[in-house]
Fold:
Amino acid sequence: MPPAEPAALEVIDLGKSFGPAVALASVSCSVAPGEFVTLFGPNGAGKTTLIRIAATLARPTHGEVLLFGRDVRKAPELRRRIGVVSHRSFLYGELTARENLTFFGRLFDPVGAEERAIAAARAVGLEDRLDDSVRSFSRGLEQRCSIARALVHEPDMLLLDEPFAGLDPLAASNLETVLRGAHESGKTIIMTSHDLAQGALLAQRIGILHYGSLRYWGECPPDLQATFNACVGGPS
Amino acid sequence: MRTLRAILTVVAKDMRGELRTKEALTSTVVFALLVLLVFNFGFEPGTRDVRLVGAGILWSALLFAAVLAMNRLLLNEREGGGLEGLMLTPLSRADLYVAKFITLLCILSLAATVTVLLFIVLYNVPIGDRLPLLATVVFAGMIGLSALGTTFATIAVRTRTREVMLPLLLIPLSVPLLIACVESTSAILAARDFADEAHWLRLIVAFDIVFLALGYATYPAILEE
Structure:
């Protein structure tokens, strides 16, 4: 019998405190390869902290995060398998989109970086603006370029922190198409969202965080709003 | 080899961005020029005085201008979250320190070259054949400032009071380096036998090695809060 495929992301008793403030308190969950998971929660629930720890941008106070069965802190080469989109674009305004994408592509693998940059730009509909400076981009274009940056090394998993924030309806619809395509190509996607309707659209499984605790983890319930309110103490 | 190539890729990206905007370089050189001019008007030093106070004036200009460059360089990384973007790549945090150190050293060395030439012209310094020796001391000093500056600018840029925080962190710790740099430069300007003053250069080199090693070892913890 072949060995069982490890979870794409396994969070075990994860905790993070900033001084006396607890951002995450003993969170445990597991995401299967190819799954699309959306994490919901009000401001300060710990969604961003969870994504940042999974992306190795922050250290946990306790617990561990396994990516594809291995501790990413002990195996930094696993960063090749994840792409991250955050509130911030991680792009350099003074460089063009092509320069940004090729630069990040080269850091992951110098071979074929330029071709991968073009392919990533094409995937998000940015090929016409490749030679424009990122500083000249609107919020929607910058977000698309940021997603192309996350895709440029062809990762197996995408960690997306509020990717729809600040996008107009057209840009949001474009992003939705990109995410759908990425998911259909087999990528694991973990996304945080404030917007219940938007976040639930593609999700196979959802999590609801409140005050650093995972209050719900499972399939998207028929009445998501009611479940959300029950978890975060909103109106029933 | 792969790591070295990645480090050089980051440095090339930084230098391309800097050469395009010239933000750090221009502000550093202009600020150094202003410091040199202010001291020139304030003291009106003659050739004899330059031998006494010239080294102090030159290093004051270099230090304060360097602080400006450090703030500017890391602020660029901070604005779009570029430094975090780099943390998501397979490049180790310690190697990121090396990349940022090399970039800062390149910018400070370029700025220092212009500043030293301006100093020689404005103060009419009879440097003669001691220019290579002066260049060696200045470059060694820039290595120390870059080693310290990369670490502290990364800390300071995350604070709200970054403009104050960086000099507060940097200047006290760089005092041994500055003393050694000023003494070495003073000996060169006064045309003293440098063999008698070589211990200052050895101190600069020791400082460079210690703070490069410390920066390399502590940078991963500094980057991750």
Chain A has one domain: 9-231.
